[in-house]
Amino acid sequence: MTEVVATNETILVVGGGISGMTAALEAAETGKKVVLVEKRPYLGGRVSQLYKYFPKLCHPTCGLEINQRRAKMNPNLTIVTMAEVTNIEGEAGAYTATVKLSPRYVNDNCTGCGDCARAVEAEFDDEYNYGMSKRKGAYLPHVMAHPMQYVIDPRIVGSDDGQKAKAACKYDAVDLDMQEREIKFPAGAVIWATGWQPYDAAKIQPYGYDRFDNVITNVEFERMADPKGPTGGKIVRKDGKEAKNVAFIQCAGSRDRNHLYHCSRICCMASLKQTHYVVDAYEDAKVTIYYIDIRAIDRFEDFYQTVKAMDNVTFVKSKVANVITDKEGNPICRGVDTEGYHRYENTHDLVVLATGMEPSVAKGDFPVDIVINREGFIEPDAANGGVFAAGSASDALDVNRAVQHATGAALKAIQVVNRVARAEA
Amino acid sequence: MSDMNKAMVEKYRNSFLSEVEANVEEGEWVKMCMQCGVCAGSCPLGDAWEHTPQKIFMMIRAGKRDEVLASDSMWMCTSCYNCIVRCPRELPITHIMHGLAHYAKRLGIVPQGQPTAKFAQLFWDNLIKKGRVNELKLGLSLYFMNGFGEGIKTSLKMKDIGLGMVKTKRMNPMEMLGGHAVKDLSGFQKVIKKAQELEEARLAKHGA
Do B35 and B103 lie in a common domain? Predict the structure, then answer.
């Protein structure tokens, strides 16, 4: 793997999702040295798991490819994957980062040919598809993964499968003796871009995500719509039945003091986007969106109006009270609507919970002194010194706003390392 | 908020919402309802009510004083607390419903023959005499709540349970003759009297 060479004029970016990539590239393209540390074996984060963006309904792979190309071309940028920052000490202009490197068991000789995956038999839940499909014990995380290198699952190292993978590799790229190791390096400023994770839907007890097969989350639904996803792009239930009558439950976790205090901002637009997936898939589709209020601001308002005008889409102003199922496993949404106070019990094929965003790093788990707000996001605060949040580590943001925020964070970090450079000159 | 803003807010705050905020226990929470409907959908007795909690809160904000205070909804609440547990804004819905019932009662507006109101009155009358609930008398008055004939029938039906309780010393039949009181009964009565004075003064102040 690439050795990390860094000084007090280096910017450390923690997290290689869309925000981290943006911040790292913007800073590197101004000539700064940047080290980008990513926990997953590839860059792109949750954006790489999206099928389409709102509001243009274009594919995130397009922008991701541009960013990956920028990353490959830039000599100022060092990318370290399967790496986690465990500690950051020091002050603005003089930090020391400790990073734990997990073994990939595959070295830079890898050409991405896939012979190892074909040789291996063991299969595991595919994290990329939120466990909705299986992947091999030797795998490429997804077709556009960057770096384009296979990963050996630690669970097959030391098994026959591990040996099979090694034997299958023509390039001597499989190295089963790789060990976890720790590296330390200096940095002048830190951009914290650890992003978000979907709120654990099983905690919303009345919706039965943990009990019912046909209650799923919006991130799972997104994978389902993707032709490269677990169902090959078909919107179907676990039992194989076509899901033509789909309900979206908004604010599943968000704006709820029992769960997340904040509005997650993206879920309204995500459900409106996913409504397009259903309507595009089936001529006789029927979509119901249960909401408290639809938060589609600025230019998104047009998108909302377009969906609202569709004949087969119904909006019900009500937060669903609970979900039960009938004998066939069809989920039934129950509640009382606010426009007339009518009690309803509506049967659907599939219920999609528009789960909200929570910070992917829990409040107590930050390996650096940083000011966290009640919601668990990073506050802009002078006490943070040379550590700057980027993207959804700072708040629930959509991709557009996350990228803008990350660019701002890059500028803040550049100012710090420029001060260091002037002092050292 | 500027003074001008505050003045405008007051202007548009209708008088019934202020009245509820001033007089109903936890009434100041009513304005926090965001009308999501989870309380109404979560209420196990929901479809037996005239108005769901979320509707009651909207009616308060819309100034529908007579309809709210004469509603049977707050009397139907069984205090299961499902709504409080699930309310995304943590409104103490159960307490507000009880507060509304209490306020309607103070004003003398209770739906005719409302059984919960009747029982609450029996409980209060029983409690106030000795400063503690005389369970024997309360039980019997509950049996006879709906007439003498039904009272005899229920008493006969419960006879074995009653005798069993006497045998195991869970109930003392002598409690029928007055029953025992709290240690400082006159002190207790003073406390209640003072509380009633305070409440009446508050009601008078708000012109109710």
Answer: yes
Q: Are residues B26 and B76 in the same domain?
A: yes
Q: What is the DSSP letter of A4?
A: P
A residues 276-305 lying closer than 8 A (beta carbon) to B: 292
B59 in any annotated domain = yes
Selecting from A257, A335, A343 the residue whose C-beta is nearest the C-beta of B88 gives A257
Chain A residues with CB under 8 Å of B47 CB are: 343
Q: Return d(Cα A152, Cα A142) in angstroms, integer.
A: 14
Chain B residue closest in CA terms to A316: B36
Q: Which of the four CATH numbers 3.40.50.12160, 2.40.240.10, 3.50.50.60, 3.40.630.30 does domain A10-102+180-195+360-424 have?
A: 3.50.50.60
| Enclosing domain of residue B105 | 3-110
The shortest CB-CB distance from A343 to any of B36, B47, B88 is to B47
Domain-located, residue B44: yes
Q: How far is B38 from chain A (nearest CA, A)?
A: 5
Its pTM stands at: 0.90
Q: How many CB atoms lie within 10 A of CB A387?
A: 28
Is residue B170 helix, strand or coil? coil
A343 lies within 8 A of chain B by CB: yes
In 3D, which of A189, A162, A187, A190 has the Cα closest to residue A176?
A162
> Residue ranges per domain, chain A?
10-102+180-195+360-424, 115-168, 199-357
pLDDT at B7: 77
Give the angle subtended at the CA of B58 by the CAs of B54 and B64, to the nearest 5°. Answer: 130
CA–CA min distance A326, chain B (Å): 18
Domain boundaries A199-357, corresponding CATH code: 3.50.50.60
Chain A contacts of B90, Cβ < 8 Å?
A: 257-258
Residue of higher predicted confidence among B85 and B5: B85
CB contact under 8 A, B54 and A292: no
Q: Tell me the C-alpha distance between A250 and A319, whole Å.
A: 7
Q: Which residue in this structure is represented by tokens 């259903």?
A: A278
- Which one of B46, B85, B88 has the shortest CB-CB distance to A343? B46
Q: Express each pLDDT in A162-189 by its tens digit.
A: 999 999 999 999 999 999 999 999 999 9
Is the ipTM higher than 0.95? The answer is no
